[in-house]
Specification:
heterodimer; A: 116 residues; mainly beta
């Protein structure tokens, strides 16, 4: 079974520029998550999709971050404009279902973003 | 707000030593999960504990869920350099949406 694919693996941009990340979840996984992981910290949920609908985006900085999952499969996360504090690893994960105790997540390898 | 606190944050030990990592919360969780993350990779699920007092073993790793389901521990026996990585505990939020809340992680370095 193919894993969660993410691209690019690395990205360096200047502050105030825009950047986009792409994620392709495991086939058949209805739930997709974007997490932000700052160096030395645990991942923090940015947004959760169930199929192509948003379930939770309470911690997404909506003035600069946006995400979509138009056909309920692939997803993109965009930052515009980027700030220095956005430097982090952006992890995409998918799971078969949702709800407590349902299934563990499968994570992609992440995109390491450096804003200079 | 549900929080998970891990301790210690950093651990550097010699090969062959034993260690325990703790994950604590003031909130009750229906289940807790442990993940291991290597540099440049995403976290990988090690185990899920569901029942209070439950103990699960994965080779040299022993996971325990507290009786009150507010805490968990990970014990590694005879650590090896291959155990080096970031260990994360995670629990599902109370909203029942499948949102996982992560602790801040414990970075383990096992020196040969």
């Amino acid at each position: 079974e193919a894993g969660v694919a993410q691209s690019p693996r690395y990205k360096i941009i200047e502050k105030r520029q825009s950047v986009a990340f792409w994620c392709n979840p495991i086939s058949g996984h209805a739930t997709l998550y974007w997490y932000q992981q700052i160096l030395g910290q645990g991942p923090k949920l940015l947004i959760q999709f169930q199929n192509n609908g948003v379930v939770d985006d309470s911690q997404l900085p909506k003035d600069r971050f946006s995400a979509e999952r138009l056909k309920g499969v692939d997803s993109t996360l965009k930052i515009q404009p980027a700030k220095l504090e956005d430097s982090a690893v952006y992890l995409c994960a998918s799971s078969l279902g949702s709800g407590q105790g349902a299934h563990g997540y499968t994570f992609g390898s992440g995109t390491r973003l450096t804003v200079v | 707000t549900q929080l998970l606190e891990q301790s210690p944050q950093f651990l550097s030990i010699q090969e062959g030593e034993n260690l325990t990592v703790y994950c604590n919360s003031s909130s009750v969780f229906s289940s807790l999960q442990w993940y291991r993350q290597e540099p440049g990779e995403g976290p990988v699920l090690l185990v899920t504990v569901v029942t209070g007092g439950e103990v699960k073993k994965l080779k040299r790793l022993t996971f325990q869920f507290g009786d009150a389901r507010k805490d968990s521990s990970l014990h590694i026996t005879a650590a090896q350099p291959g155990d080096t990585g970031l260990y994360l505990c995670a629990g599902y939020g109370s909203s029942n949406t499948g949102k996982l809340i992560f602790g801040q992680g414990t970075t383990l370095q096992v020196k040969p």
